[in-house]
Amino acid sequence: MSINKVDLSNLAITLAIAGAGAGLFTLIGFPAAPLTGSALAVTLAGVLGAPVIVPLGLRTVCFIVLGAGIGSGVTPAVLDAAVAWPASFVALGITLAMSMLLSRIVLVRFFGFDAYNASLASVPGHLSYILSMAADTKADVARISLAQSTRVLFLTICVPPVIALLFEVTEASFLPAQNITAISAVYVLLGAGVVGVIFQKMKVPAAFLLGGMLVSSLGHLTELTPGKMPDWATLISFMVMGALIGTRFKGISAEMFVKAIGAGVVVTLITVSMAILGVILAMTLVGLDPSLLFVAFAPGGVEAMAAIAVQSGLDPTFVAAHHIFRLLLLTILVPVLLRWTKPSESVKDPS
Questions:
Q1: Alpha-carbon distances, residue 189 vs 104, 195, 209, 212 (angstroms)
Q2: Do 217 and 71 meet the contact criterion of CB atoms below 8 Å apart?
Q3: Selection from 157, 155, 164 nearest residue 291 by Cα
Q4: Which of 152, 180, 312, 318 could form a disulfide with 227 if both were Cys (CB 3.0 to 4.6 A apart)?
């Protein structure tokens, strides 16, 4: 479907609002500013009646870039490190599943979520994957994204000062030093687009995000496409993702908004509690430092947690391996959990 002049005008308004929010949050030093700033700005604008919009094509490109960025963390070094800590991975997997099930029960029983939306809102991580899956299945993206964003914001804000009290900042580097080359980026993005189309025809949820993850992971594991995605591409994609979150809040009542925030806080407390349980279990099994395990188990954004590990002088390979494992495990667990419910049970998109 072609985009008309009105849509282009509304898109320009949306991106201007998103950019202003991201810029303001960057100036005040707010964590994950491109995502959180744009999401909050567009959310407020949408609630106030602004004609915010993110077209399907732009959303698709955003998902591909984000998927490629996630996949760039799957390297041979990460896989080698993962093999060294099987007991810790078991502890993470057990508490991850417990967190999802308990959060789902609480959301259904006390916050009025249906089983399908509760399943997506209870996932401790993989935000872009969950939001794209929710959008593809016509779930209640507004409530899910707000609950998920509350978790991300809370952890991103609270984890760094806690870790800063225990460790000194170091100059260690976690991400590859160099950007992916232009030709390699073209191969990854085009390949991801092709795989995304195939996944879409196979009715795979979040097809283009998963396409980006798969192609980028294979490229890094084989060392055919080394290097990270350019910072500008990642930042723009986060801003667009934040804007997409914001556009889903049009028409949301104040009561629903407050309930969603409450649900997000409760899910955050549950996931953090389960992470602490996982830390205790892993300490019993492998005897590693609890601060290292907490950053590795904390259900925050993978980029934020990786950055925290680097700045805190923790073992970045250990932390990265656990967060990549969490993403991969969630990719498997979420569809399994959703098989217990039907998409038709979900609330239709309010916009």
A1: 35, 10, 11, 7
A2: yes
A3: 164
A4: 180
Contact between residue 49 and residue 252 where contact means Cβ atoms under 8 Å apart: no
The structure's pTM equals 0.64
Whether residue 160 contacts residue 146, with contact meaning beta carbons closer than 8 Å, is answered with no
DSSP string, 51-81: -----HHHHHHHHHHHHHHHHTT--HHHHHH
**pLDDT tens per residue across span 175-227:** 566 888 889 989 999 999 999 999 888 866 567 887 888 898 888 888 888 88
Contact, 136 vs 163, CB < 8 A?
Answer: no
Contact between 71 and 216 (Cβ < 8 Å): yes
Report CA-CA distances (Å) from 249 to 7, 32, 51, 96, 144. 18, 20, 11, 28, 11
